Amino acid sequence: MSAPYSPSELLICLASRLMEDGATAFIGTGIPMLAASLAQRRHAPNLIPVFEFGGTGAQIDKLPLAVGDMRTFHRAIAASGICDIMETAQRGFIEYGFLGGAQIDAFGNLNTTHIGPRENFKVRLPGSGGGNDVGSLCWRTIAIMRHDKRRFVPRIDFLTTPGYLTGPGAREAAGLPSGTGPHRVVTNLCVMDYPEATRRMRVIALNPGVTIDEVRANTGFELDVADTLPANDGPGEDELRILREVVDPDGLYR
Amino acid sequence: MKSGPDVLRVTARGEAPLLQPPDLEAFRAHNRAKDKRLVPKLTTGSQAIDKFVRNGQYLGFELYGSVRCPMTLTRDLIRSGKRGFSIAGQGVHEADLLLAAGLVERIDFTYIGMEVYGVSDIVRRACEPGGTVRDIVEWSNGALTWRFKAASMGVPFLPTYSMLGTDTFRHSAAVAVECPFTHKPVALLPALILDVGFIHVARADEFGNCQIDGVSGFAFEMARACKRLIVSAEEIVSTDRIRDQPDRTIIPYYLVDAVVHAPFGSWPGEMAGYYERDEEHYRAFIETSHSKEATDAYLREWVTGLSGHAELMEKVGTARLEKLRVKGGRR
Q: Which residue positions in chain B have pLDDT lower than 70?
C-alpha cells in the first residue's frame, strides 16, 4: 500500500527505476532531471547524467532549471561543450536518452516542431533542440509522456525525432546507427516497449489501478499488448520521501 | 586501380533554402586581412554594433536558454534600430527579445522556447503563418553546432548521423549522400559562417582574449565561425591574468573585434560562478510574453526606454543584483 502521490511523481519514479547504476544517460529539462537525481540518491549513485551543453557526471544537488545551468555540472566529472557531448553520443558512449514531445506515433517517432501541416501550422513548438540528436545517436531512448489521444496519434504532424520511422529496418535504411532506437515509453497509465518483429508500441505493464481498456481509450492508434501484464508498483514511501524532501524540496516540479 | 562511379550519390536532399551559403575562400581572405596585432578593443555595445552590424546580416548568439546569453548586447542591438536579420536560432532568451522586437526575418531554427516553462508565445506570434519571420529552416542542436564547427575547421561541410530519416532533415538545407567509405547514407551539414557573432564571457582582457567558467556551450566553435565577433565580459582583467592560465583561453584576441565590459551581462539569465538566474524577473517576463501588448510594454520598460546597460543596472538595483550572486563569489 503506497502513500498518495501525484501523476508526475509516478512518472518520475517509473523513469528513475529505468536508470541503472553506472550507465550514461542523456538528461533533458524537467522530469528526467528529477528522475536522475532520485536514482542517484537511491539505487544508482554512479549514474552518469550527461547534459547537452557540456555537463558530464554531475552530482545533482539542486534541480537544474535549464540544460546548461550551473547545476548541470555541480561537482561533475567534466564541464565541456555541446560538440563534445553530441560527439560522445555519436561515438556510441551514451546508453540512454530521455525524450518527450507533443505527439508520438506507434513507432515512437516524436513531434516537437509544430502542430498542423507545414504550410499552415497552427502552433509553433520549440523545435528539435537536442531531441533529434538524442533520438538519432543514443543507444536506447525512453519517452516520458502524458497519456491521451492528442499525444498518442496515428500520424504525427512533423517527424522531429526519429523513433523506428516506418518499422523494422527503417532506421538502418535511413543511415541511423544500427542497434539504436526507442526502448520504453513511460506514461501516467502504463509502460510500453517495441518488440523487434514489429517495432510498434506494446503495453508491457500497467500503472496501479489502470485497466488496459483505459489505456486503449486514451491512445489514438491500435496498441499491441503483452501476454502477461504485471502491475507497476506505485511510488514507495522511500521514493516519495527522497523526492519531496531531498530532490525537490521547493516543489518546483510537483 | 579501383573502379566505379566517381560522384557521390545523393540519397536525400533537404528542401529548405540555405540561408547563408558558405564561402570558405572569402572567409579565408577575410581572416587573412584581420588585424593580428594586439590592439585595445574596449568599447561600448552600441558603438560596437554601430561599427560592425548592418541591416539584413546573419547573426549568431551563444549560449542557451537563460544561461550566459549576451543579453546586454542584445538590448543594445534592439536599441540600435537595425533590422532585417537572419539568425541561428539556438540561443533562447535573446532570440525571444529579438523576435519580440520584430528584427528577425529568417531563422535556422533548432530550439526557441522557455525550457521548463514550455512554448514561447513570442515565437508563436513571430513564426506562425502571418508572423514577421519569413523563412524557418529546421536543424537539430547538434547539427547547428556542427555547422559552426565546419566553419571553424575551414571546411564546407561535416557529416553526421543526426537528422537522417526525419522531417527535421527534410525541412533543413542538409544533403544526404552515400558515404564513399562506408557506403551508408550520411547527412552533410553545410558550414555556417556568421556575419556577426555575440558571446558573453566570464573575463576578457582589453585585446579580446576570453575565458569562460563552467560549460563552454558552443563558444569555441561559434567564435571561430564569425567574420565579426563582439564579446561582452563580466570582468575586464589584465593580460597577465590571461597569460597565467592560457589553457583557459577559449577565444584568442585575434578572433575578436570589440570587447564590452558588462557585469551582469547575462541578466536576467545566469552566469556560472557569478550569479544565478533572476527567477522573479524571468517569470514576470514570461507572463508578459503571452500578449503582444504586454511584450511591447516589457520592451519599452526594460530595453528601448533605457539609455543603456548602466541605466538598466540602476533600475534593477544593487540589492537585488547582489542577492543573485553565487555564494563565495567567482570560483
A: 1-5, 328-331
Distance CA(A76)–CA(A73), nearest Å, equals 5
Of the candidates A46, A38, A31, A48, the residue with the CA atom closest to the CA atom of residue A17: A38
Q: Do B111 and A80 touch (CB under 8 A)?
A: no
Q: Is the peptide bond before A45 cis (omega within 30 degrees of 0)?
A: no
DSSP letter for each residue of B39-52: ---EE-HHHHHHHH
How would residue A52 be classed by pLDDT, with cut points 50, 70 and 90?
A: very high
| Separation CA B250–CA B241 (nearest Å) | 14
DSSP-derived pairing of the beta strands B85-89 and B58-61: parallel
Q: How far apart are CA A155 and CA B163, in angstroms?
A: 19
pLDDT digits (tens, 9 = 90+) for B51-107: 999 999 999 999 988 999 999 999 999 999 999 999 998 888 999 999 999 999 999
Q: What is the pLDDT of residue B331?
A: 44
CB pairs under 8 A between A and B: 194
Nearest to A248 by CA among A6, A2, A68: A6
ipTM computed for the complex: 0.97
Provide the total of helices (H) and of strands (E) in chain B, helices listed first: 13, 14
- Please say if the pLDDT value at position A1 is more than 60: no
Give the pLDDT of residue B329: 57
Q: What is the mean pLDDT of residues A223-252?
A: 95
Instruction: Name chain B contacts of A171, Cβ cutoff 8 Å.
Output: 165
Residue numbers in A near B124 (CB within 8 A): 123-124
| Residue B254 main-chain phi, psi, to 5 deg | -70, -15
Cα atoms found within 13 Å of the Cα of residue B176, Cβ hemisphere only: 26
Residue B255 preceded by cis peptide, ω within 30: no
Average pLDDT over residues A181-186: 98
**What's the start-to-end Cα distance of chain A, in Å?**
21
Q: How far is Cα B41 from Cα B172, in angstroms, rounded to an integer? A: 37
With a CB cutoff of 8 Å and minimum separation 6, the contacts of B37 are none
CB atoms within 10 A of CB A188: 18
- Residue A87 appears among annotated catalytic residues: no
Determine contact, residues B148/B225, Cβ cutoff 8 Å.
yes
Nearest CA in chain A to B146: A83
Average pLDDT over residues A53-71: 91
- Which residue from A minimizes the CA distance to B269? A69
Q: Provide the mean pLDDT of chain A.
A: 96
Do the beta carbons of residue B257 and residue B229 sit within 8 Å? Answer: yes
